[in-house]
Amino acid sequence: MSIIDKTDAVLEPEAVGFDGPLLDVRDLHVEFHTRDGVAKAVNGVNYSVEAGETLAVLGESGSGKSVTAQAIMGILDMPPGRIPRGEIMFRGQDMLKMSEEQRRRIRGRKIAMIFQDALSSLNPVLSVGYQLGEMYRVHEGLSKKAAKAKAIEMMDRVKIPAAAARVNDYPHQFSGGMRQRIMIAMALALEPELIIADEPTTALDVTVQAQVMDLLAELQREYRMGLILITHDLGVVADVADKIAVMYAGRIVERGPVHELYRNPGHPYTKGLLESIPRLDQKGQELYAIKGLPPNLTRIPSGCAFNPRCPMAQDVCRTDVPPLHPMTAPDGTELVGRASACHFWKETVNG
Amino acid sequence: MSELTSKTDTVVAAQAATTPDAVLATDAGPAPGKPRSLWSDAWYDLRHNWMFLLSTFLILLLLLIAAVPDLFISGSVSPRDGDLTAHYLQSPQMSHLFSAEWFGYDHQGRSIYARVLHGTRASILVGVMVTLVVSLVGGLVGLISGYFGGWVDSVVSRVTDVFFGIPFLLGAMVVLNTFAERSVPVVALALAVLGWTSIARVMRGSVITVKQADYVTAARALGAGTGRILFKHILPNAVAPVIVVATIALGGYITAEATLSFLGIGLTEAISWGQDISSGKDYLRTAQYVLFFPAAMLSVTVLAFLMFGDAVRNALDPKSR
Amino acid sequence: MAELSKNDEQGDTTPNVSEVEVVEARTEAEEVAALEAPVERGEPILQVRNLVKHFPLTQGILFKKSVGAVKAVDGISFDLYQGETLGIVGESGCGKSTVAKLLMNLERATAGEIFYKGQDITKLSGRALKAVRRNIQMVFQDPYTSLNPRMTVGDIIGEPFEIHPEVAPKGDRRKKVQDLLDVVGLNPEYINRYPHQFSGGQRQRIGIARGLALNPEIIICDEPVSALDVSVQAQVINLMEGLQDEFNLSYLFIAHDLSIVRHISDRVGVMYLGKMAEIGTDTQIYDHPTHPYTQALLSAVPVPDPAAREHRERIILTGDVPSPANPPSGCRFRTRCWKAQDKCAEEVPLLAVPERFKNSDTPAAHESACHFAEEKDVVHAA
């Protein structure tokens, strides 16, 4: 667990006065070399996050949503992974061109990550207080005592009851929800500018899930952090996101502000997903089901990757890869922030 | 942050990649390609592993030597009879293919080449016999104690602990001391008596993991009997680590036999590398080749089995790479 | 699929048994025959009464001594009617999966009865138990671990026939397996493939085919879609609904996803810490919940509608579920309940129609184990 870099040099914002997006991912490609060929996990992803904004990246397993996050964090296994193309701009600087040393200074301090499985992300033989305090001891050079005090403060912050009494407990002594709070505390310890949360509540029970998502949203507002929330749960997204990027087979197929996108999806895949989930407030008839299976990443269909499963597919969908078109209202005005990678987005929106 | 990432998507990508299915997409979801069992996947890995190919070649060669050593010796040369006047400590000479002079002659005028080749049989036999006995006994004990648990497991575990506490070679020496005539089966048995516990432990651990799998529960829910669950569901899924440990241990058993023979309490009847190494040590300063060739043969043999075991492990458990 | 309908009742005649055995065999055969009798639609096919499962906590290596018990299931009762789907929801540790194991006879109940067609199956063994097993099958949560990776799909789906050879003669089996693959929407040609050659959704279909092989009457589904991708979940749910109609199955559908449970269930039971908190029809539970735990659970479910997030009332519970080894006295939910009073710590609330709704006709009149039950619609609060 080398969570922490030993350098104490603070990354000075070289780009003082930079006013672009906090994080800007441009044309990112990631592939994995396997026995059966090259698995193209990410195929040209573009997204950006501003300070204080929540971007939800929605997708199924194999859509490339987690791989993108790992590429941003620089924790991709390489090999077998490879980034043949793309830029990851953090405050205007391309992290892929940085030295390992420079990246380590950003990791944990400027960008932190929260994982799905808190138990395996915490070291089982060290107390949580020690692990939390380590952030302060190593990064800020605090004394053992001061670090512990900070750790208790942080545990209070994430609403762990009786923090002072539990600071010396070990990870397995906490429940799943409490462990996820500790993970959040560790991620927030150095007040990063961006948090990437990869399925942070998937392993938790519904009632605890609500607590943890609330906490995360509250802390994000308080610290004005950028948040990338990676999930497959349409409900969670609807609850917390400002804007959404829907991923399929390593590409963003649709993006837009959460309200508009849910009200009127512009891509058949998004539309199918929204229609295929059962509702809590009414008993529906038979569920709409997207036919078929997510594609094999070593053999992504030509043209639009979704075409074999799409009810609207035409010949053009099998030959031409649709670009991410900006969407406009029927009267021609631009729909701010909305885009769809479908040849027939107009028909999808209106149909 | 943490390097202990949950690599969900990576895993999925890799999974998708090893599965040549699901390019597309009717509801039925075709899975094109031929049926591919996990064993055939492992076989595919092995065939493309130079270490496996090399070690297999060596092992096959050794087996052939063990079966018919005379095939590799030109003329009829007895490994037991020496001619002291003609060949006493004669140095190695490259005359013709498979010549008895290749490795020189020892202090009794015997052909070292012939002795080394004839010694192969005893070493390989001991190694294979110990491995077989140990795998069967240890595997069965491990299977039973791992599956049934409870007091059976407690008793078996304590017994294996006791055996585990006895130093392997020391124990074998004590056992073998009670025999005046020590043939191949006797030595093999002495080693097996002390060796089965390590296999039993590996098997037990493996069975305990496998028996918690849902497919075992599913079989029980169908009403399957203990025999079917043990031999159809648990054994095939639990046996891989045992195969690996057993192949690697085989090399160790060959070394153990040589060590015992070196110490003079190993084989009495057969020609053994250990004995030859033992007698060769006396001429270390004057005729190194007397020691060198049996020792080299022993090393090559052990190395071949270790490499084989390593390759098998990589193929059966791709994650350990 | 005529072969799969329920008409193979032969297999139970025992032609060549000795005199002594006949008496015993006959009673057993009668037992088995009783188990084979059809149940009318709408009649209870499974009745669970005061079911208890405590897992003892032990210490010591050779001589184990008991130091307490995890009360995984602590006295629950419910009926499963022929042809219906009963959903069981609850958070992890509430005992819902243990209920599934008890119904499958994979664990022995500590106390209580499970009546299948009037016969207590917790006491059965041998042939009668095997006959029951034929009629109660299970679909597992994880399609990656529930199929033996070293067996072909044909062997996996055909295994039920090998264990119960009376169901299908040897020559017919391959054909039957292919029919089953077809029924669950897989290509029958894949009979010789291995599980790892399929995706999660396809594997779950294989698991369902195995569950259907013996023409069961009841299928226990333990989180059958929670491991699947969103776009594949709907396919599997639709398949299961279709199969229910086709083969007249009764489902016990255990899940933590409340939306899916509502979609598929006729009735729903809510479990908390080994007890049933509330049980009723889907409308009663979802639109007219009276137990505070149900209300909190429903209000916590993220709804895929961003417009609702400003309007919906959220009941955020504090704290975690207490340990089932040491549950709170009285009402088990009281430590997290906002209504809790002294009475809740002293008296265990019984699962019954609350007094105040007893004579009313409202949907709130359903069984709820709360001293202070009152109706509160948290789902349509907008």
Proportion of helical residues of chain A: 25-40%
Low-confidence stretches of chain A: 1-15
CATH fold-level name of chain B: MetI-like fold
Model regions low in confidence, pLDDT < 50 over at least 5 residues of chain B: 1-32
The coarse overall form of chain B would be elongated
Please identify the top-level CATH class of chain B.
Answer: Mainly Alpha
Mean pLDDT of chain A: 84
Name the CATH superfamily assignment of the largest domain in chain A: P-loop containing nucleotide triphosphate hydrolases
Main sheet makeup of chain B? none
Oligomer: heterotrimer
**Assigned CATH architecture of the largest domain in chain A:** 3-Layer(aba) Sandwich
Portion in beta strands of chain A? 15-25%
* Class based on secondary structure composition and strand pairing of chain A: alpha/beta
Percent strand of chain B equals under 5%
The H/E string of chain B reads: HHHHHHHHHHHH
Structure explained in plain terms:
The complex is a heterotrimer of chains A (351), B (321) and C (382). Chain A has helices at 65-73, 100-106, 118-121, 128-140, 144-157, 163-166, 176-188, 206-223, 234-240, 258-263, 268-276, 315-319, 345-350, and strands spanning 23-34, 37-49, 54-58, 81-90, 93-94, 111-114, 194-198, 226-231, 243-248, 251-257, 325-328, 334-340. Chain A has 351 residues and is an alpha/beta fold. In chain A, the strands form two sheets. Chain A has an eight-stranded mixed beta sheet, sandwiched between helices. Chain A has a four-stranded antiparallel beta sheet with strand order 2-1-4-5, with helices on one face. In chain A, helix 4 crosses helix 5 and helix 7 (176-188) packs parallel to helix 8 (206-223). The relative contact order of chain A is 0.14. By secondary structure, chain B is an all-alpha fold. Chain B has a single domain, classed as MetI-like (MetI-like fold, Orthogonal Bundle), CATH 1.10.3720.10. Chain B has helices spanning 8-18, 38-47, 50-67, 84-87, 112-148, 150-165, 168-177, 184-211, 214-222, 226-263, 273-280, 289-316. Chain C folds into two domains: 40-265, 3-Layer(aba) Sandwich (Rossmann fold), CATH 3.40.50.300; 290-368, no CATH class. Chain C contains twelve helices and eleven strands. In chain C, helix 4 runs parallel beside helix 6 and helix 5 packs across helix 6. The model of chain C is unreliable at 1-26 (pLDDT under 50). At the A-C interface, helix 7, helix 8, helix 9, helix 10 and helix 11 of A face helix 7, helix 8, helix 9 and helix 10 of C. Chain A: Pfam families: ABC_tran (PF00005), oligo_HPY (PF08352). Chain A: This is Peptide/nickel transport system ATP-binding protein/oligopeptide transport system ATP-binding protein. Chain A: Residues 25-274 form the ABC transporter domain.
